[in-house]
């Protein structure tokens, strides 16, 4: 099984800051990686697919990069509505797996 | 408008069974693979099962293999998850989602407790 390790697990940041979340895969997954945002009591929302493609309707301050085993999600300038938990997911092979999550809260 | 609406969750005793349903609308259901994903309260996301558009290929996580069965009725636009021999560790919100990850239901809570 492919393990995904997200870092950090927790992140405190301020509005306007630039933040980066990392997701490392235990083996190469090409670009078969997505990023999700989840707010309490809500279903996950797809932000990025194929490692770097912005999902329709997602603000351009979100960006993804990487290939192989190392991936990043960057939020260029945090907005109040961005405080949430973020997950990466690999869709390269079964079983599909998620990272452990990164909780982003307000400093 | 694409909608996925889960139902069928509830409280069940260990060893019991439940069948979840996911009613799809607003898209051509029979052309999309579908997934079930669960989330224990306060925990992370866990993929449970996937089924291709015509049910040709089905996959399960090791944690549910042999106990859960995914199926779909393309004539009714409904995805199912039959859950048997339920355990306490199956307690979670269960979400159905399009394979692309772009649309998810609101989730249904399954609680396994005596």
Number of strands of chain A: 11
- Work out the helix count of chain A: 0
Shape designation of chain A: globular
Overall 3D shape of chain B: globular
The assigned structural class of chain A equals mainly beta
Q: How many strands, what sense, and barrel or not for the largest sheet of chain B?
A: 6 strands, mixed
Rg measurement of chain B, Å: 13 Å
Strand order of the largest sheet of chain B: 2-10-9-4-5-6
What level of helicity do the residues of chain A show? under 10%
Question: Low-confidence segments of chain A, ≥5 residues, pLDDT <50?
Answer: none
**Average predicted confidence as pLDDT of chain A:** 97
Average pLDDT value of chain B? 98
How many DSSP-defined strands of chain B?
10
Largest sheet entry of chain A: 7 strands, mixed
**Element string of chain B (H = helix, E = strand):** EEEEEEEEEE
H/E topology pattern of chain A: EEEEEEEEEEE
End-to-end distance of chain A = 36 Å
Runs of chain B with pLDDT <50, length 5+? none
The multimeric state of the shown protein is: heterodimer
Percentage beta strand of chain B = over 45%
List keywords for this structure.
heterodimer, A: 107 residues, mainly beta, seven-stranded mixed beta sheet, four-stranded antiparallel beta sheet, 11 strands, 50% strand, B: 114 residues, six-stranded mixed beta sheet, 10 strands, 49% strand, globular
Q: Overview of this structure, please?
A:
The complex is a heterodimer of chains A (107) and B (114). Chain A has 107 residues and is mainly beta. Chain A is built from no helices and eleven strands. Chain A has strands at residues 4-7, 10-13, 19-25, 33-38, 45-49, 53-54, 62-67, 70-75, 85-90, 97-98, 102-106. In chain A, strands 2, 4, 5, 6, 9, 10 and 11 form a seven-stranded mixed beta sheet that branches. A four-stranded antiparallel beta sheet of chain A has the order 1-3-8-7, with no helix packed on it. The model of chain A has no long low-confidence stretch (mean pLDDT 97). Helices cover 0% and strands 49% of the residues of chain B. Chain B is built from no helices and ten strands. Chain B has strands at residues 3-7, 10-12, 18-25, 34-39, 45-51, 58-60, 68-73, 78-83, 92-98, 108-112. In chain B, the strands form two sheets. Chain B has a six-stranded mixed beta sheet, with no helix packed on it. The radius of gyration of chain B is 13 Å and the shape is globular. The chains are: A mainly beta (107), B mainly beta (114). Chain A binds chain B through residues 34, 36, 38, 43-46, 49, 55, 87, 89, 91, 94-101, and chain B through 35, 37, 44-47, 50, 59-62, 95, 97, 100-102, 104-107.
């Amino acid at each position: 099984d492919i393990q995904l390790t997200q870092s950090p697990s927790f992140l405190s940041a301020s509005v306007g800051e630039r933040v980066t979340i990392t997701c490392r895969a235990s083996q190469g997954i090409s670009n078969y990686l997505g990023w999700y945002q989840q707010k309490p009591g809500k279903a996950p929302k797809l932000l990025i697919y194929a490692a770097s493609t912005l999902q329709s309707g997602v603000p351009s301050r979100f960006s993804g990069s990487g290939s192989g085993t190392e991936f990043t999600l960057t939020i260029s300038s945090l907005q109040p509505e961005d405080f949430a938990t973020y997950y990466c997911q690999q869709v390269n092979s079964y079983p599909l797996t998620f990272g452990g999550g990164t909780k982003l809260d307000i400093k | 408008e694409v909608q996925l609406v889960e139902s069928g969750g509830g409280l069940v005793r260990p060893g019991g069974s439940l069948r979840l349903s996911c009613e799809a609308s607003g898209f051509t259901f029979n052309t999309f693979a579908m997934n079930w994903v669960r989330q224990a309260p306060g925990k992370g996301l866990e993929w449970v099962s996937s089924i291709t558009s015509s049910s040709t290929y089905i996959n399960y996580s090791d944690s549910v293999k042999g106990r859960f069965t995914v199926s779909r009725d393309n004539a009714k636009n409904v995805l199912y998850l039959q859950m048997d021999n339920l355990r306490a560790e199956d307690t979670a919100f269960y979400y159905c989602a399009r394979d692309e990850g772009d649309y998810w239901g609101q989730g249904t809570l399954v609680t396994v407790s005596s």
